[in-house]
């Protein structure tokens, strides 16, 4: 079931970064997210609900304005 707020997401296992792209175009990189959390999100019925319960306010994040912007560390 597609989420109403999350357009896409991806996980970088080497960096342990979970990237969430919202329908609004905002991009958030959540730091130090265990791979198990990503797997649980993949299997979650509602990505938005899972995000709100298990990721939001629980991990440090970096925010990017939109999915087209490039960032440099």
Automatic annotation (TrEMBL):
Domain KTSC: 3-59
Pfam family, one: KTSC
The name this protein goes by in its record: KTSC domain-containing protein
């Amino acid at each position: 079931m597609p989420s109403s707020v999350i357009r896409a997401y991806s996980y970088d296992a080497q960096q342990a970064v979970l990237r969430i792209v919202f329908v609004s175009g905002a991009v958030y990189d959540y730091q130090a997210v265990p791979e198990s959390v990503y797997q649980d999100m993949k299997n979650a019925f509602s990505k938005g609900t899972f995000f709100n319960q298990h990721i939001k306010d629980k991990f440090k994040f970096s925010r990017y304005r939109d999915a087209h912007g490039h960032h440099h560390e």
